[in-house]
Write a structure and sequence with these properties.
The protein is mainly beta. Helices cover about 0% and strands about 45% of the residues. Strand 4 and strand 5 form a beta hairpin.
Length: about 230
């Protein structure tokens, strides 16, 4: 926050964060240097349900948003946005507002699927859009000397988990690594339960994903053994 009045606030966007204002909406994006297409787009709207304020040495959550109650949003410079309100949110000049990712996580920062014997070493990650570093249905994962830390001028290293492991087997080793400022867990390792839906015949059953945030991937492979709980 660089300027504030009763019904207007000017925000400075960190260098390196590309954005546009269109149809009174603030949208962030990043383009691929190879294809020129967007890696992601992220519109700051009502789905961004939680924000974090950095005020001096204080850090706290708030439901207040730079854009949620804005009547007019205008790009005023290469790195500045002006928002007009009926009454300005109670931000102060000097506040840093870390806006939460839209809760609809549409992609990952890094993605391993159906891989085996993965070894990652001495990697520094400054920022990941979406779900973070996801390893799904893999076998034997090693992470050594990884550093997750926001780049200079930023406050967030990932919009969700940093290392997220789902449905993997064998081992997961995470050693000598540094985790800083994700929006969710630093490390999350879990499986996925499926619900028995119906018996198709004596040897065939139909199962279903139930959790609203899961689905869209193969939960089993030929040869896997499945245990049914009741």
């Amino acid at each position: 926050v660089t300027e504030r009045s009763l019904n207007k606030i000017t925000y400075k966007i960190p260098t390196g964060s590309d954005f546009e204002v269109k149809n009174n909406k603030l949208t962030f994006f990043e383009k691929s240097p190879f294809s020129g297409e967007n890696y992601y787009t992220y519109t700051a709207n009502g789905e961004c349900y939680c924000n974090v304020i950095h005020r001096g040495d204080e850090v706290f959550r708030t439901l207040r948003s730079p854009t949620k109650t804005a009547l007019k949003i205008k790009k005023t410079g290469a790195h500045t946005v002006e928002c007009r309100y009926f009454v300005s949110p109670k931000f102060k000049v000097g506040d840093v507002v870390a806006m939460s990712r839209n809760k609809l996580r549409d992609n990952c920062g890094l993605f391993f699927e159906s891989c085996s014997d993965i070894f990652c070493e001495r990697i520094t990650v400054n920022y990941m859009h979406g779900f973070g570093w996801l390893s799904q249905m893999c076998e034997n994962l090693s992470f050594d000397k990884l550093t997750f830390k926001p780049a200079s001028g930023y406050r967030v290293s990932s919009f969700a988990d940093l290392i997220h492991v789902c449905g993997c087997k064998g081992y997961v080793k995470i050693t000598d690594s540094h985790f800083e400022h994700p929006h969710d867990d630093a490390i999350n390792v879990h499986g996925a339960f499926l619900r028995f839906r119906k018996a198709c015949d004596e040897r065939t059953a139909e199962l279903e994903f139930v959790h609203h945030q899961q689905g869209g991937y193969k939960a089993f492979y030929p040869g896997d053994k499945v245990k049914i709980y009741s």
